[in-house]
Amino acid sequence: MVTAARVVRTLAGAAAVVIGAASSAHAQSASTRDRASTDPRIVEAGGKLYRRNCAVCHGWRGEGTVANWNQPGPDGKMPPPPLNGTAHTWHHPRSGLMLVIRQGTVRIGGNMPAWKDRLNDAQISAIIDHLISLWPEDVYQAWLKRGGYN
Ligand code: HEC
Q1: Residues 75 and 137 in one domain
Q2: Can you give the pLDDT at residue 13?
Q3: Does residue 140 lie within any of the structural domains?
Q4: How many CB atoms lie within 10 A of CB 6?
Q5: Are 82 and 59 in contact (CB under 8 A)?
Q6: Is residue 150 part of a domain?
């Protein structure tokens, strides 16, 4: 099960995405594009994008920037949670993570910016792969059991 999933991830990575090339994202089918990849080059590229765009709010290694991340801040909105597996990012399948990063939560009254006009799907997907690579093995396994690749 785990091995198969990892193989699928590797294949998806090998077949997929040249980071930064928007056209390649469009050439991929949605199912291929949204799979995680263990290809270290993709994880590394995702890490660079993450540190440039996301770390200011979510911490350099996804550790978060706000102690009480699960309580609304002074503005009544939820602060940025850690993304390194210590909060509940792993409760979301890849498709859910793609969605929240693409669309953000500003339009529904939150403080998470939308990224769909600044990052293409391949770049967002690589960032997710980077985030998954930060999760401890038990968190990753729990995410798989919940259907993380859905
Ligand atoms: C300006 C600060 C800010 C930046 C920059 C930012 N975020 Fe967020 N992010 C937030 C906030 C605030 C939330 C909580 C939103 C809510 O609950 O309404 C959030 C939530 C999320 C969530 C949902 C987490 C969960 O556990 O449900 C993910 C995933 C996420 N951000 C990823 C990213 C990624 C990837 C980037 C960079 C491309 C990024 N964020 C950049 C502020 C930010």
Answers
A1: yes
A2: 41
A3: yes
A4: 13
A5: yes
A6: no
Residue 12 is predicted with a pLDDT of 42
Q: 84: closest CA among 121, 46, 45, 139?
A: 139
Q: In the structure encoding, which two tokens stand for residue 149, read together?
A: 């690749």
How many domains are there within the chain? 2
pLDDT at 150: 78
Cα of 89 vs centre of ligand 1, distance in Å, is: 10
Q: Could you report the average pLDDT of every consecutive run of 10 residues in the chain (150 residues)?
A: 44 40 37 53 95 98 96 97 95 95 97 98 96 91 88
Instruction: Report the pocket of ligand 1 as residue ranges, CB < 6 Å.
Output: 53-54, 56-58, 78-81, 83, 87-89, 92, 97, 100-101, 105, 110-113, 115, 127
Q: What is the pLDDT of residue 36?
A: 52
How far is ligand 1, taken at its centre, from the CA of residue 123, in Å? 15
pLDDT at 16: 40
pLDDT value of position 39: 85
Q: Is residue 89 part of a domain?
A: yes
Alpha carbon nearest to ligand 1 atom 25, residue: 89
Among residues 135, 133, 128, the alpha carbon closest in space to that of 49 is found at: 128
Going 20 to 23 to 27 to 33, the CA torsion angle's sign is positive
Within this chain, do residues 20 and 64 fall inside the same structural domain, yes or no?
Answer: no
Q: Whole domain around residue 12: which residue ranges?
A: 1-32
